[in-house]
């Protein structure tokens, strides 16, 4: 008989500029009041910012990030469940020189314990496409393909007995050939496939942005994995001092994972 465990996960690009500390304080309060088991954040650039969120979201007793001052990749993982292992792998530098190099883009690979057994979680933030053009010949599409190829290699190196959840800000639309090719190579499934809602907050200059933030899953032999997902953190919140504001220029993606023990 298969025992099923539910794991609630959030992926969220926390935005590295503009009222950062105030927004992270508000985010910490939101997380503390939430029922997430695992939270994957992107664009948390400084160690003290990660420590602030963790201090406010105190029920997340386990965390992973790397870097003594600046966080590698700007990636943070908070978990209510024990983290067995965690490491960061940097993507090779490719494409046009850009300030983004300072963020040391890469992937955070972790294994989290659940009552149904260990679960591999990867948290990533790929390079931005500064042309807004995801056609195959675009210079930034070539960057995305190189980073996705590197990520695919890291996924191939994981223990095949582990089910996998790959999340983050991929900076690639859901229907882009670079992403669909990556899914085909890795055996991952997009939990929100076919959903046309944006995960980047629309603006007057960009009224219909695509979805950049994804939850991708892959079961393992004898370890079932399914998921439902929805877009969250859309609304303004009360920031310190009483003013209203948004947590980020992105929305979050929440996933309810159903994990079978086999």
TrEMBL record:
GO molecular function: sphingomyelin phosphodiesterase activity
InterPro entries cross-referenced by the UniProt entry: Endo/exonu/phosph_ase_sf, Endo/exonuclease/phosphatase, Sph/SMPD2-like
SUPFAM superfamilies noted in UniProt: DNase I-like
Domain Endonuclease/exonuclease/phosphatase: 10-250
UniProt name for this protein: Endonuclease/exonuclease/phosphatase domain-containing protein
């Amino acid at each position: 008989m298969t025992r099923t465990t539910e794991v609630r996960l959030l992926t969220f690009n926390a935005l590295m500029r503009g009222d950062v500390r105030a927004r992270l304080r508000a985010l910490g309060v939101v997380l503390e009041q939430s029922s997430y088991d695992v939270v994957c954040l992107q664009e948390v650039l400084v160690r003290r910012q990660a420590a602030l969120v963790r201090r406010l979201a105190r029920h997340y007793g386990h965390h992973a990030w790397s870097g003594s001052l600046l966080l590698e990749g700007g990636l943070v993982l908070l978990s209510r469940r024990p983290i067995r292992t965690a490491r960061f792998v940097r993507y090779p530098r490719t494409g046009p020189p850009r300030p983004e190099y300072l963020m040391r883009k890469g992937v955070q690979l972790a294994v989290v314990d659940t009552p149904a057994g260990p679960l591999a979680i990867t948290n990533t933030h790929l390079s931005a496409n500064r042309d807004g053009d995801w056609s195959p010949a675009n210079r930034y599409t070539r960057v995305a393909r190189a980073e996705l190829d590197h990520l695919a290699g890291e996924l191939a190196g994981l223990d095949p007995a582990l089910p996998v959840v790959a999340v983050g800000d991929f900076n690639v639309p859901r229907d882009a050939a670079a992403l669909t090719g990556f899914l085909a190579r890795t055996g991952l499934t997009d939990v929100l496939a076919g959903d046309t809602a944006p995960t980047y907050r629309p603006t007057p200059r960009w009224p219909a942005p695509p979805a950049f933030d994804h939850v991708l899953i892959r079961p393992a032999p004898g370890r079932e994995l399914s998921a439902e997902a929805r877009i969250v953190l859309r609304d303004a919140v009360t920031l310190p001092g009483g003013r209203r504001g948004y947590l980020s220029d992105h929305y979050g993606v929440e996933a309810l994972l159903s994990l079978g023990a086999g």
